[in-house]
Amino acid sequence: MKSKFYESLNRQALALLEGEDDLVAAMANFSTLLNDNLTELNWVGFYVMRGEQLVLGPFQGKVACTRIPLGKGVCGTAAFTNQTQRVADVHQFDGHIACDSASNSEIVVPVCAQGNVVAVLDIDSPIFDRFDEDDQKGLELLVKSFENCLFD
C-alpha cells in the first residue's frame, strides 16, 4: 500500500516542480510537500554541499544544525558515501549529531547532479524505526524525480 502512496506523492512532486529551476524554491516546496503528507515526523529538509561540508538549506521543523562536516553524522555519511542512510535508532549511530533531542530515527537520501552529491534530503522522526524499506524506496523515487526536474 505504501508504494501507491509514494507514487501519488511523486505525481504531486512532479507537478510542483514542473518548470521550476530555482533550487531553493524547489527545496522549500518539496520539503513542505513531504512534511504535509508524511506522518510522525519532526524535521524534513535539505542540507546542501558547500566544499567539504553540508550547509543547512530549506526545511520544515525546529531549529537545526547549520553545518555538518562531510562524513560526520547520518547526513555527512550519506553525502560522503552517496548512499541512503536509514537509521532505526539514531542514538546507536556512531557519530550521530543530535540537532534535536526528540529525534529517534532518521533517513537521509543523497541528491545528485551529474553523479555528484549536491545535497541530501534529511527526514527525522521521534518514533524509533519509523522508516522501512518501502519508505526508503519511495523517498528515493521522489529524490530521483527532484533530480530529473532540477538537474537534467
Number of discrete helical segments: 4
Named at the architecture level, the CATH assignment is 2-Layer Sandwich
- The succession of helices and strands, N to C, reads HHEEEHEEEH
Silhouette:
globular
Q: Name the helicity range.
A: 25-40%
Structural class from helices and strands?
alpha+beta
Average residue-wise pLDDT: 96
Tell me the total number of β-strands.
Answer: 6
Strands of the widest sheet, in order across it, are 3-2-1-6-5-4
Head-to-tail CA distance between termini: 30 Å
The named CATH superfamily? GAF domain
Assign the CATH class. Answer: Alpha Beta
Q: What proportion strand? A: 25-35%
Task: From the 3D structure, determine the CATH topology.
Answer: Beta-Lactamase
- Major sheet details: 6 strands, antiparallel
C-alpha Rg (nearest Å): 14 Å
Low-confidence stretches: none
What is the total domain count?
1
Pfam family, one: GAF_2
Family: Belongs to the free Met sulfoxide reductase family.
Domain GAF: 41-143
GO molecular function, one term: L-methionine-(R)-S-oxide reductase activity
Write the layout of secondary structure elements.
Elements: H1 2-17, H2 23-37, E1 43-50, E2 53-61, E3 67-69, H3 73-81, E4 85-87, E5 105-113, E6 116-125, H4 133-151
Antiparallel strand pairs: 1-2, 1-6, 2-3, 4-5, 5-6
Helix pairs in contact: 1-2, 1-4
Give your account of this protein's structure.
The protein is an alpha+beta fold. The protein has a single domain (2-151), classed as GAF domain (Beta-Lactamase), CATH 3.30.450. It is built from four helices and six strands; from the N terminus they run H-H-E-E-E-H-E-E-E-H. It has helices at 2-17, 23-37, 73-81, 133-151, and strands at 43-50, 53-61, 67-69, 85-87, 105-113, 116-125. It has a six-stranded antiparallel sheet with strand order 3-2-1-6-5-4, with helices on both faces. Strand 1 and strand 2 form a beta hairpin. Helix 1 packs antiparallel against helix 2 (23-37). It starts with a helix and ends with a helix. The mean pLDDT is 96. This is Putative GAF sensor protein. It comes from Shewanella baltica (strain OS155 / ATCC BAA-1091). GO terms for molecular function: L-methionine-(R)-S-oxide reductase activity. One of its GO terms (cellular component) is cytosol. Residues 41-143 form the GAF domain.
